[in-house]
From TrEMBL:
Its main location: cytoplasm. Homodimer. Belongs to the class-II aminoacyl-tRNA synthetase family. L-histidine binds at E81, G82, T83, R112, E130, R255, Y259, Y260. This is Histidine--tRNA ligase. It is found in: Cytoplasm.
Length: 418
RNA sequence: GUGGGCGUAGCUCAACGGUUAGAGCAUUGGACUGUGGAUCCAGAGGUUGGGGGUUCGAAUCCCCUCGCUCACCCCA
């Protein structure tokens, strides 16, 4: 095979592409009900934006970005996530000067150079939702609630919302010092990865699958928050309770991007292998000021669209089934193709889904095609009359040539088959 | 970046180192000269991912390479 889609990318064909539209429109409708508005931003940005926003030491920036120089030598990077771009446009357009709360959502492909595996691609899709301008814990709750509503609107019952607070930069760094000190005494018993992590990413040690059991004695971050972070976290939990949202505290939940602080959350499902997260997010109160804007708190999440699709599909493959629609027009006589052609376009102009075929194939195979492609009607044009067949019921009726207008009106939805 | 599994028809997969590489589904035609969802018959469809080696003989064994896939790392 000469040409293939590059590694980690893929083509989305019908009926999957139709499923994408169904899911996307649900997400959009839900976000808009919550008062969020759509933004579209570039697929690539100046590399510096991501280095600043996401953090120079994160895995994303260190080894996963698609970075290149354009013809003028500018360093550009295909976006590995959306929050940095959103923050950039927020500052660039001066929205930080506005004192209200700004609520946006976006959808688009993201790019990360990783080894593909189940539910993970090099080009993948995020549906992101962000609220800027308030540090109110209610806003954190609102976003988590939107996550819950979204997932439930796809009839997914088996899911879990994890929450945690990673505090602000002050209480977090104090905790890390404390944790690091304690771990130093026992790290020899830990796995190889943890011995490395203890210096590079201390918090990750807590999340290790192998050494999980060893961590019971260690202090947890959410117990070591400063008073104001602690109060914020309590209010988030209170708000979740008010809305009857089930959550589970996960002291080991740590996000991999530097801009997060305080509330972080993740929604996991058991559908894709062993509990995979399909969305993750949190608060980022320093990001806007870090990018040169007026200090503006923010909170948001990104949903892995591809993963959501997989979950929705494995939960209910029938969601792709749609009712029969439109009409397929054909004639066994090549001399009548002109008429077939004319009627097809006439029906299209009347707003009906209409299709015909100019291949010289048997009538039988054409009906087969129409059936397979989920058409509702099959109209056969003969020399002396025409036959309209309802492909759902199998019922059919003969019409005289003079009744053509009647058939067209009927098909475009203004009559029944009488 | 590390480690496992796998590449045979459009798809899912057979074929102990031994005739001309098969089957199901899908596709095309026919039985049914003007009709789908069922059945039967027939046709078309392949450089066994690519290259090299071992052998009288390779889809099968060995090496290289490309690709896919799963897991780790990390993330959505």
């Amino acid at each position: 095979m000469e040409y293939r889609a590059p590694r980690g990318t893929r083509d989305i064909l019908p009926p999957e592409s139709e499923g994408w539209d169904i899911i996307l429109s649900k997400l959009t409708v839900r976000a808009e009900e919550y008062g969020y508005k759509k933004v579209i931003f570039p697929t690539f940005e100046h590399t510096e934006l991501f280095k600043r926003g996401i953090g120079e030491d994160t895995d994303i920036v260190q080894k996963e970005m698609y970075t290149f120089q354009d013809r003028k030598g500018r360093w550009l990077t295909l976006r590995p996530e959306g929050t940095a771009s959103l923050a950039r446009l927020f500052v660039e357009k001066g929205i930080d000067k506005f004192n209200g709360v700004s609520k946006y959502y976006y959808f688009g492909s993201m790019f990360r150079y990783e080894r593909p595996q189940s539910g993970r691609y090099r080009e993948f899709y995020h549906f992101g939702v962000e609220a800027l301008g308030s540090d109110s814990p209610y806003l954190d709750v609102e976003l988590i609630s939107l996550c819950k509503d979204t997932v439930e609107s796809f009839a997914i019952k088996d899911y879990l919302i994890y929450i945690n607070s990673i505090g602000c930069s002050e209480c977090r760094s104090q905790y890390i010092l404390k944790l690091g000190g304690l771990l130093k005494q026992v790290i020899a018993y830990y796995c190889e990865d943890c011995r490395r992590r203890v210096t590079t990413n201390t918090l990750r040690v807590l999340d290790c699958k192998i050494d999980k059991h060893r961590n019971a004695e260690l202090p947890i971050l959410s117990d070591n928050l400063c008073p104001s972070c602690s109060q914020h976290y309590d209010e988030v939990k209170k708000g979740l309770q008010t809305l009857n949202i089930n959550w589970q505290e996960n002291p080991n939940l740590v996000r991999g991007l530097d801009y997060y602080n305080r509330t972080v959350f993740e929604l996991v499902t058991p559908y894709l292998g062993e509990s995979t997260s399909i969305l993750g997010g949190g608060r980022y109160d320093q990001l806007i000021s870090c990018l040169g804007g007026k200090e503006t708190p923010g909170v948001g999440f990104a949903l892995g669209f591809d993963r959501l699709y997989q979950v929705v599909y494995s939960n209910n493959p029938d969601f792709l089934n749609s009712p029969r629609k439109g009409v397929y027009i054909s004639s066994p006589e090549t001399g009548l193709w002109d008429k077939v052609f004319r009627i097809t376009f006439d029906l299209r102009n009347r707003g009906l889904k209409a299709e015909c075929n100019y291949q010289n194939r048997s009538l039988k195979s054409q009906v087969k095609t129409a059936d397979k492609d989920n058409y509702e009607f099959f109209l056969t044009i003969f020399q002396k009359d025409m036959v309209l067949k309802n492909l759902t019921t199998g019922e059919e009726k003969v019409y005289e040539n003079e009744e053509e207008e009647k058939v067209l009106v009927l098909l475009s939805g203004k009559g029944d088959m009488s």
